[in-house]
Amino acid sequence: MRFGFDIDDTLINLREHAFNIYNRKLGKQLGLELFHALKTVEIHEPFGMTSQEGKQMWNSSREEIYYTTCPPYPGAVEMLQELEEQGHEIFYITARDREHGERTKQWLKDNGFPVRDDRFFCGMKDEEKIQTIRQLKLNYYFDDKPAVLNTLSEEPVKLFVKDQTYNQHLNIPRITDWTQWKTHIPLPH
Ligand SMILES: [Mg+2]
């Protein structure tokens, strides 16, 4: 089977990692309850930033957000390793800019993710992921963003949403805990 995965906030806890970085850089100590109460993908609001300021903060922090110690979600790496061992094909499809492609790939490898160079795709906008997903003829695709998943509802690919506060309205099979993936993903025997 051909499995496609978004990376940020699907396989790794990037927004929370960024929230901690913002706290440190801004000399603040906002509690994680504020993070968990966010209903937006963007995280700037509890820091009192406008969306423009938030965008600037994100862009100027991106090196640190992407390439330091962002934790994978528990069970995510193990799930991918197991799928790979079972002979399934794993594709990564991320909206991260093309200029971050090679380093992101290396970061994933360094953190134990099974990555093949020809199965890693980056640099597309959210609504453009559909082209790649179609071309790859994926059987399964996992993402956190409504803006992506909504474009795929008519496609033959089987969709799953990684549970986040901002995607509660989506009526798609939901993964809250990667350690429980086998109860959610029906694999043919
Ligand atoms: Mg994502």
From TrEMBL:
One of its GO terms (biological process) is deoxyribonucleotide catabolic process. It comes from Mesobacillus foraminis. Its EC number is 3.1.3.-. The keyword Cytoplasm does not apply. It is an enzyme of class 3 (hydrolase). InterPro entries: 5'(3')-deoxyribonucleotidase, 5_3-deoxyribonucleotidase-like, HAD-like_sf, HAD_sf, Nucleotidase_putative. Keywords: Hydrolase. The active site is at D6 (nucleophile), D8 (proton donor). Pfam families: NT5C. This is Nucleotidase. Belongs to the 5'(3')-deoxyribonucleotidase family. It comes from the Bacteria. GO terms for molecular function: 5'-nucleotidase activity.
